[in-house]
Design brief:
This protein is mainly beta and 280 residues long. Helix content is 12%, strand content 50%. The strands form two sheets. A twelve-stranded antiparallel beta barrel has the order 2-3-4-5-6-9-10-11-12-13-14-15. A two-stranded antiparallel sheet has the order 7-8. Strand 7 and strand 8 (144-145) form a beta hairpin. The radius of gyration is 20 Å and the shape is globular.
Length: 280
């Protein structure tokens, strides 16, 4: 028999499938957007499903679903827009079959923001101002009180990124560099010392490397995100043979070092790595 806490964890995990089903028709609609208009649906952060081979018993997977939607454009040129974003990061003991494969933790991160893009069709260069909430969804539910494990915070943020023009330093090689930064001011935080471990800002570095003469296999995308007390790196190797014009499937790798990989263990410093698949 499932305990109530196990049932709640499973129910939260089911929301992942619901999100995917909800996004699918919207994404299909965005694919039909005219070429001179920006697609209304995109990602806020990375989308991936990965296995953590160094986890206890080698049973854990880590995955993330992230989407944003351009809800309103403020001008006819579509430079300014109001956006809604949602990111869910989950840790799942998928291969712990003897324990009924429970979800370990789900962290939910909705946000709303105003953005400015000099080129509405280019999402790489952008300035954003908004508000964000993040929590692990634990609280009082009927007779079950999980507040001792509740983690949550809100913040007002200002962020931006700039994509440099493509250059070809040597014959047959194309590089695309993007630099970004994001700063935030927390408010209504539980527990009070959470911002100390999450920090007050982050810097991002993205490098897209392409071999022009091998367009189907000669590409890799690298990303680094540095917080005050953590750093993480991501690598994508797109699999063009199983991708199409609207969906890109990739081999994916991630390494994380520092604090607050998970909200519930925010004050524990960890080193973890993951391998799996990415979705762009």
């Amino acid at each position: 028999m499932l305990r109530r806490s196990d049932y709640q964890a499973r129910s939260r995990g089911i929301t992942v499938a619901m999100i995917v089903l909800a996004i699918a028709p919207v994404a299909a609609a965005s694919a039909a957007t005219a070429p001179d208009e920006p697609a209304p649906v995109n990602a806020v952060a990375d989308n991936y499903f990965s296995w953590q081979p160094a986890s206890a018993g080698r049973t854990a997977v880590k995955f993330q679903i992230s989407v944003r939607y351009d809800m309103i454009f403020f001008d006819s040129t579509r430079h300014f827009s109001f956006n809604f974003g949602y990111t869910q990061k989950s840790f799942w003991d998928l291969f712990a079959f003897g324990r009924s494969s429970p979800f370990i933790e789900n962290d939910y991160k909705p946000e709303a923001f105003v953005s400015f893009r000099p080129d509405p069709r280019d999402r790489v260069t952008e300035v954003m101002l908004g508000v964000q909430h993040e929590s692990n969804g634990l609280g009082v539910d009927a007779n079950v009180d999980q507040t001792k494990n509740s983690r949550g915070w809100n913040n007002v943020f200002l962020g931006g990124r700039y994509g440099f023009d493509r250059r070809i330093p040597t014959e047959g090689l194309e590089l695309y560099l993007t630099l970004g930064a994001r700063f935030w001011c927390p408010f209504v935080v539980l527990p009070d010392n959470l911002p100390h471990y999450l920090g007050y800002g982050a810097a991002t570095f993205n490098l897209d490397i392409r071999l022009i003469n091998h367009p189907r296999f000669g590409q890799i995308a690298l990303e680094a995100i540095a917080h005050e007390r953590s750093i993480e790196g991501h690598a994508y190797l797109p699999l063009e043979a199983v991708s199409n014009g609207h969906f890109r499937f990739s081999l994916y790798g991630q390494i994380f070092y520092g604090d607050a990989e998970r909200l519930i263990t925010f004050d524990q410093r960890v080193t973890s790595y993951s391998i799996g698949f990415g979705f762009i």
